[in-house]
Specification:
Length: about 525
């Protein structure tokens, strides 16, 4: 499809709206130029005699639709962009027969919109009305976002304005899963093995330097999160060095939460769990992603569901009373039935929190290929049973082989997510944080569910952008938050471990930005 802009350059948001309906279709973009042929979308802002007009025209196959709005007076560019996106959304909804559950919401933090309205004193019905009118969000997703906002409200109210969280990045894994798009390296590669000693050394130095800055600014450490990658991909000695650096340089006696992503069961040992416990961590993640052995094999994991159970039980025996487990809906070869079994098996283990992610297929993952986008044969019966509905609502999608298959797959993934969320709610887990990503199957969401009192504070604060996060390690992103104005500044560490090591001094010099930010408050 060719997308053409006249009198405006609102490419980012309008492209995001188009992708809600055509997730796999490739777009070409023109400015002040009409397409020669084929399907098109025209986004126009044109001056006329008594003001100006906004219009959107879309041609899909044999169908074409146009919406126009004449305007007088002063409107901001943002207001014009929103109006054009709304026209485009309504046209695409009509032409494709698809109604996205999240409506026009394209951002990654929909709960922030609910929190903002709650802070203004709006009640539940007023919040629903406002978000339906502006974004066309479904009742189901509004209910999910509202429940999440209510669950996290106490954690947000309890924030100390001078508090911060520490994030420590370990961008290494035992092997790379097919769906992964993170900057993580296989610990078994020659390059990674060579880098690891220097990486751990530099990371410990950065942890110490970060503590110095925090003390200089009189900031109070609130939570610690060691993530990755897979932190337990490090050797026991390396993991102890990192956690020792945290304990030595920060006062962790008064922090409210200390999380370590123990991660994959093929990296978890009793010795590493003892180190994690003895150096102060109060919360860990044991992340299976699925409890189906054939799915684990399909995504390149080298452990079984039984290994996950063993790792979980070892952690319990060693005294861990706050364990999270992650799953992903939509993994290759998974089905709604086997996904349901995964959720049921995890609930039998009875962890304090379970996070349901939706598969996100990004270009940097091995999964991003036409072959991998195919629907597994075991899903076919599900598709055939829904064929009439699909063909009626999305006849245009059939013209786009892989895009139509993607849509079919999305129906199965939606069923997985819906089941998982309903089942966890029925077991007493409540949604406490929620975020969305680009290229997520069926435009769905990732939701953390927890038993009351076991919500991960770090996850809430980073997702709602409510607290400063000081980051150490490759790929770490320091997020500086002015709690009075909401202003946010970011400082990025180098992504790759070799860059992090070789350009360490240059990267550290940028940390002066932390001091400048807080001194300007």
């Amino acid at each position: 499809m060719t997308v053409c802009y006249f009198g405006n350059s609102f490419k980012y948001e309008t492209e995001a709206v188009l992708k809600l309906f055509l997730p796999i279709v490739t777009f070409d973009f023109l400015f002040e130029e009409y397409p020669e042929s084929g399907d098109f979308c025209l986004i126009r802002r044109e001056t006329c005699e008594d003001g100006y007009s906004l219009s959107v025209s879309v041609k899909l196959g044999e169908s074409e639709e146009t919406r126009t709005e004449n305007r007088k007076g002063d409107f901001s560019e943002k207001e014009d962009e929103t109006a054009l996106c709304t026209m485009l959304y309504l046209i695409m909804e009509k032409l494709t027969g698809t109604t996205p559950a999240w409506g026009m919401v394209t951002g990654i933090r929909p709960v922030k919109k609910v929190n903002e309205l709650m802070e203004r004193g709006l009640d539940k019905s007023e919040i629903f009305s406002a978000l339906k009118e502006k974004y066309y969000v479904s009742d189901e997703k509004l209910e999910l976002a509202y429940r999440t906002a209510v669950t996290q409200s106490d954690a947000l109210k309890a924030l100390d304005k001078r508090s911060y969280s520490l994030y420590v990045s370990i961008p290494f894994c035992p092997s790379r899963c097919s769906y992964c798009s993170f900057v993580s390296h296989s610990i078994e590669s020659a390059g990674a093995k060579k880098l690891l000693p220097d990486y751990v050394k530099k990371l410990c130095e950065e942890i110490s330097m970060t503590a110095d800055i925090a003390r200089e600014l009189d900031l109070r450490l609130d939570t610690v999160y060691i993530g990755g990658g897979t932190p337990t991909a490090l050797s026991a000695e390396q993991l102890e060095a990192v956690m020792s650096a945290v304990k030595k340089n920060f006062d962790i006696s008064k922090i409210r939460e200390y999380t370590v992503e123990a991660g994959r069961s093929d990296t978890i040992t009793e010795k590493k769990l003892e180190i994690i416990r003895d150096f102060g961590a109060t919360r860990i993640s044991v992340n299976p992603q699925t409890m189906n052995d054939s799915v684990l094999e399909a995504i390149g994991r080298r452990h079984t569901a039984k290994d996950v159970v063993n790792a979980f039980e070892t952690a319990r025996r060693l005294g861990f009373g706050n364990i999270n487990m992650d799953v992903i809906a939509g993994l290759p070869t998974d089905t709604p039935e086997s996904f349901a079994q995964t959720i049921e098996m995890l609930c039998e283990l009875d962890p304090e929190s379970i996070t349901i992610h939706t598969l996100t297929v990004k270009r940097s993952s091995a999964l991003f290929s036409a072959e991998e986008r195919r629907v597994d044969s075991r899903l076919q019966q599900f598709h055939f049973e829904n064929a009439n509905k699909i063909l009626h609502q999305n006849s245009y999608m059939q013209n786009f082989g892989s895009a139509f298959v993607h849509f079919l797959h999305g129906m199965a993934v939606s069923e997985m997510v819906d089941f998982g969320q309903r089942y966890l709610l029925g077991k007493g887990y409540l949604p406490y944080y929620l975020y969305r990503q680009k290229n997520t199957v069926d435009n769905l969401e990732n939701v953390g569910f927890a038993k009351a009192g076991y919500e991960c504070l770090y996850n809430i604060y980073i997702m709602e952008e409510a607290q400063t996060i000081l980051a150490a390690g490759a790929g770490g992103s320091t997020k500086l938050v002015n709690t009075e104005t909401g202003k946010i500044e970011r400082l990025f560490n180098y992504k790759f471990p070799y860059e992090y090591i070789s350009r360490y001094d240059k990267m550290i010099a940028k940390k002066e930005g932390i001091v400048s930010f807080f001194n300007s408050l």
